[in-house]
């Protein structure tokens, strides 16, 4: 049975941390579109006032006749707040008079986190801790906190994954620290063409005549659109129980296949440069030690919390082993179709900054 998400945020006061990022912008647009109900207010929390300004202008220029319909009184519903999840007092102020929190604030580029691990800790760990602490310390009547996680949180080998894994644990334990609030998470893989991802890089390299740089011919990754990611997050908001982690059943492919599909018949060379600091050959969405706690619900895998106070493991797990990106790979034709359906072929000449 499909999850009814049509009233997910109906009448709710919503806060989106990191709301000016790739995911945050698409999430805000979706919340304003009415497809998940009509919120009473949507507040974007970000420390970059320049991005606030650009996002406000972009939303004002959306036509009511376009596919991205923003209802006409969005100006009184959409708010921008300069603030930082790293700062406890900023978080306390932002969380007052809020029903739902989507924590999309993150440092997410793997190499950047490797070179600046303390910065990743500040945003990806202390930020979530500030949210839990603010709700608990001040008995704030927040109904739900949705944490946005990543496949790199499974058996993490890089700083980004390690910090995101701790974010998950902080939010799971938050159900005990602030029992009046339901804390859940959504975990998913690579988002197609999000800021810092490989597709814009490949497009730029192809436009320059190559070479297209490949880390390893056997490397695989999950692929989701930003809209898929938003649906997963909203599904977890609606159907997730305390401490659960929602996982989409995502398609995957070799990065080499992606490069070949984008290059097509162009005489462009592919150059293998080796794995970057902190990268895995394959990604994992459900780890071996989580499989026994994983169930299926409405088309998603759902990891039940390990803490016995929050329910424990199911009697019939949905998985017997890890769910990894080297299973059931898309071939070139399937991947080409996915890119075409999302306007991400080189021929489409996408403006990634405008889209995301």
Report the β-strand fraction as a percent range.
15-25%
CATH topology: Rossmann fold
Mean pLDDT: 90
The span between the termini is: 31 Å
Order of helices and strands: EHEHHEHEHHEHEHEEHEEHEEHEEEHH
Radius of gyration: 20 Å
Overall tally of structural domains: 1
The stretches of 5 or more residues where confidence is low (pLDDT under 50) are: 63-71
The structure class reads alpha/beta
Please provide a written account of the structure.
The protein is an alpha/beta fold. The chain has one domain (13-355): Rossmann fold. It is 38% helix and 18% strand. It is built from 13 helices and 15 strands. The chain has helices at residues 22-33, 49-60, 74-77, 88-95, 110-115, 117-138, 159-177, 198-207, 226-239, 255-263, 288-291, 332-341, 352-355; strands at 13-17, 41-46, 78-82, 100-103, 144-150, 182-188, 212-214, 220-222, 245-248, 252-254, 270-272, 284-286, 294-297, 300-303, 323-324. Strands 3-2-1-4-5-6-9-14-13 form a nine-stranded mixed sheet, sandwiched between helices. The protein has a two-stranded parallel sheet with strand order 7-11. A two-stranded antiparallel ribbon has the order 8-10. Strand 1, helix 1 and strand 2 (41-46) form a beta-alpha-beta unit. Helix 1 (22-33) crosses helix 9, helix 4 (88-95) packs across helix 6 and helix 10 (255-263) crosses helix 12. The longest helix has 22 residues, at 117-138. The chain is globular. The two termini are 31 Å apart. Mean pLDDT is 90; it is low at 63-71.
């Amino acid at each position: 049975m499909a999850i009814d998400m049509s009233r997910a945020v109906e009448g709710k006061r919503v806060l989106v941390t990191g709301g000016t990022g790739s995911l945050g912008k698409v999430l805000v647009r979706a919340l304003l579109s009415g497809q998940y109900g009509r919120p009473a207010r949507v507040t974007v929390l970000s420390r970059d006032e320049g991005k606030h300004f650009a996002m406000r202008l972009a939303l004002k220029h959306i036509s009511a006749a376009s596919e991205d319909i923003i209802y006409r009184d969005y100006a009184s519903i959409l708010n921008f707040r300069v603030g930082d999840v790293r700062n406890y007092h900023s978080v306390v102020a932002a969380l007052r008079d809020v029903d739902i929190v989507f924590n999309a604030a993150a440092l997410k580029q793997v190499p950047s986190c490797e070179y600046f691990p303390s910065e990743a800790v500040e945003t990806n760990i202390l930020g979530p801790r500030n949210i839990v602490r603010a709700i608990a310390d001040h008995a704030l009547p927040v109904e739900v906190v949705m944490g946005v996680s990543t496949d790199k949180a499974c058996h993490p080998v890089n700083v980004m994954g390690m910090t995101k894994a701790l974010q998950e644990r902080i939010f799971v334990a938050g159900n005990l620290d602030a029992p009046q609030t339901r804390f859940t998470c959504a975990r998913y893989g690579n988002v197609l063409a999000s800021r810092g991802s490989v597709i814009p890089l490949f497009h730029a390299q192809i436009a320059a005549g190559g070479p297209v740089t490949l880390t390893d011919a056997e490397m695989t990754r999950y692929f989701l659109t930003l809209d898929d990611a938003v649906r997963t997050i909203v599904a977890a908001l609606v159907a997730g129980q305390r401490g659960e982690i929602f996982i989409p059943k995502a398609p995957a492919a070799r990065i080499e296949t992606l490069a070949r599909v984008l290059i097509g018949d162009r005489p462009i060379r592919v150059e293998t440069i080796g794995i970057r600091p902190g990268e895995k050959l394959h990604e994992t969405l459900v780890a071996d030690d989580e499989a026994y706690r994983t169930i299926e619900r409405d088309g998603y895998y759902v990891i039940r919390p390990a803490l016995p106070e929050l329910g424990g493991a199911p009697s019939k797990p949905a998985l017997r082993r890890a769910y990894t990106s080297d299973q059931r790979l898309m071939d070139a034709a399937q991947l080409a179709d996915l890119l075409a359906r999302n306007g991400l072929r080189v021929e489409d000449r996408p403006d990634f900054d405008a889209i995301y």
